[in-house]
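User: Can you model how zinc ion sits in this protein?
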Amino acid sequence: MNNANTITTPIFTIGYGQRSVDALLTDLRTHQIQYLIDIRSQPEAPHDTTYSQSALRQSLESQGIRYVFMGHTLGGACNGGDPNAGIENDYEQGIIRLQKAFQQQRRVALMCREGNPAHCRRAQVIGRTLDGLEIPVRHIDESGQIIEQKAVSAPPPMPDDPFGDEFESWLLTDYDNGTIFYEAPLAEMSGDPAAPFLPDDGLPPLPAFPHDPATLLRQIFGYDSFRPLQEDIITSVLDGQDALAIMPTGSGKSLCYQLPALLLPGLTVVVSPLISLMEDQVTQLRESGIPAVALNSSLDYSAYQWTVEQIRAGTVKLLYAAPETLLRPDVLLLLEQVRVDCLTIDEAHCISEWGHDFRPEYRQLISVRRRLPHAVCLAVTATATARVRHDIKTSLSIADANEFIASFDRENLFLAVEPKTNTVAQTLAFLQQHRDESGIIYCATRRQVDDLAAQLQSHGWDALPYHAGMDTATRQRNQRQFTRDDTPIIVATVAFGMGINKSNVRFILHVDLPKNLESYYQQIGRAGRDELRADCLLLYSYQDVNTINFFISQQAESQQRGARLRLEAMLGFIETNECRRRPLLAYFNETFAADGCEMCDNCTTAPEALVDITIPAQKFLSCVKRTGEIFGTNHIIDVLRGSRATRVLSQGHDRLSTYNIGGEFSKKEWQYLARQFIQQGLLVQDPTYGSLKLTAKAYAVFRGENVEGMMMETARRETTAALPHDAELFQRLRAHRKALADAANVAPYVIFSDRTLVEMAAYYPQSNQRFATLYGVGALKLEKYADSFLGIIRTYCAERGIEEKRRPAAPGSGGGNGRSRRQEVVEMWNEGSSLDDLAAHFQVKFSTLLDHLWKTARAGETLRPDSLLAYADVSAADQQRALAAFAAHGPDFLRPVYETLGETVPYEALHVLRLHHVLNNRGNG
Ligand code: ADP
Ligand code: ZN
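Assistant: Here's the modeled complex, given as structure tokens:
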């Protein structure tokens, strides 16, 4: 008899029917199945090879589920052959094993082909036998729900049914005769001598984890160095000091509690608001050999109970739970009974009514915290104003918590903004630069999502839509297609993205203006989590601004001001001529100290690209004047380019002297120029209608004053990742990863991130030792995947005579051991490395290195003097003139030197020469 305290785990049955392997695994996971017993007569599936024995075994095992083939013991002979040959004995052995599993309370599911259990004689017969043994049987039906065995209608008896009533009663009698303890040899049972059958522990035994964070980082997670703040936060947690960490999306918050979880003797509880997010993390952790479980409302009672047992038994290190689950009295009681060492609150901003995502149940987490006074509390979130930070601390009563606020600068995101002239054409052009890459296109409305997705599909791009107006099943399918790399492009509204952990999102395209920088930042944050370069392009038009303004005007009076100011900041970001990181980070109260970032459109347009744009300015401005200063940019451009649009003709603008005098520039190029005219204050734009008016400065231009500006360069965006690598090998490795992922029914990035594959294709590792040094390769992944990937790399290298390359100790971004990149550069420089060495080691451009060294020099820190003249690409005479000019003007500003030299020595060379100058004249003034 069952009551709430002694819950019995039944034996499950499941038939895959029309279900995909994916769906089957989901159902198995939901019910926390540990062993799948294949009772098909033949472990093959000619019509769907994903169900063939080897593929199925791989898929299951990747999820930590054991596969056992029992065809010949649990009814194989009913499929042709002689029904009486030895079957009784085999069947009995099979049932005995099941009985043993039941006694040990294993979570076992018997699998056959028929989705409906009433259609499978084998499942029926076994079910009835078990029923007779008082072993409860539950069927997991095609919608993942549980049906009681009794509710499964019996199939009509078949004349040739070898499992007739007679046979069944024989079996029961035999059981009564006491052969129940008979143990059949393993090999016979599973069809695989190596496969252990139903061992005594539930999850795999706890691995012995190394004891210091740095070793753990390498061995378990496969990373060389901590990202900024990670180490500090981990230290705080391990020291038992509460902490509040504010780190941007993709910066590696999870590691801050996952790693200490392995070092703390007790359990780490992670509060997480989204079930999908929890499941994703649990899968990824298990993939790295870390025992983790989740408790949430999607588990049925017995799965729930199983999880609870695992927690009680101390076999898990991390427990993810929804706040409402944690607040249940039985869960609170459970947590008090086990040792909880760390309570992590993920997405902690949900606690504050002032945050953008308030969840009332988060407020009550204080009662969880009170019950666990000895657990250290770590609150993490990506966005939090001072107000929200304060709220988090008071709500959790962690007033003394250490605060860690990471930089919001995501260095690997290339930021660009372009005026929107033609959404589809610009989107296609952008995608063209990102062939074979995966990314998200954000639109403002559902309708636009559907339209654009259809347009892209009609142009042959593999893109799927996603928005909240779609039915749940389609939406989930599309999301899954995307996260699993089956469909590279998703066109979506802002509804898409929460809980997407995919690390190889290579681009984010906004075809509409986000309503504020918070949203923009959150959306671009989904790109480049693997630290490889990702491209973010934002298309804007003043129509978008009007639309947003309109929506703001519909809001409550009290909210309008704030919303307007946020829009204002968004416009500041769009229209800036400076590094885009400046206004972006300023918005998050962070000052961007560097001169430029090299990773935005404005920074990569070198100063020497300034050209004389007086003539186009005069044309444009006079066209504005002649059309009466009441039209917007597009109309002016139409007139300049001689458009036959009705709008132009009906106004008689084809008769103006400025009609058709601007054919030398494309519409897009004119847009680009017009933006500069606005920025330079030659024109003002009406904020509501977008119409342009001349300023006093414009009249100065008519009188002959020069205008300097930039011409649009179309092909300046690099599309390759920062680390040079072998593209062909990369494709092969990627295909292999995809095959493994599909077989295991997980997303490809769960196996390895793009970054790991890029490193394989850059360093050509030939041995396990070398493979183990790659980014993202921990001990378990090494064991699981090294052989197959190495096989591909070796073959590839052998065919071409390519040799292994040494991987630099700590390439990539992010300072190791809390040191900044600049400190690392300076250290190597002082030890004698050349600029070439450094560029190769850190995979960065000279200009970045020069910037680091220059800042160090300016800060008065020690730098090894060395000649850099070889790097200044101008004549020796020019070099000497420049050095003399630096001696005269001082090194602080480049512009006076540039002008003194008659603007003949490019800025690029001046940067080098300035550094040469300071390195070799230190102490002399
Ligand atoms: P967040 O939760 O802050 O959005 P995640 O914790 O999901 O970010 O981390 C983003 C990505 O960075 C993940 O793929 C993670 O494995 C990776 N990562 C985390 N820490 C490091 C590190 N020290 N070195 C390299 N990669 C890391
Ligand atoms: Zn920049």
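A couple of observations from the model: The pocket of adenosine-5'-diphosphate (ligand 1) is lined by residues 223, 226-227, 230, 247, 249-255, 501, 503, 529, 753 (CB under 6 Å). The radius of gyration is 33 Å.
User: Helpful, thanks.
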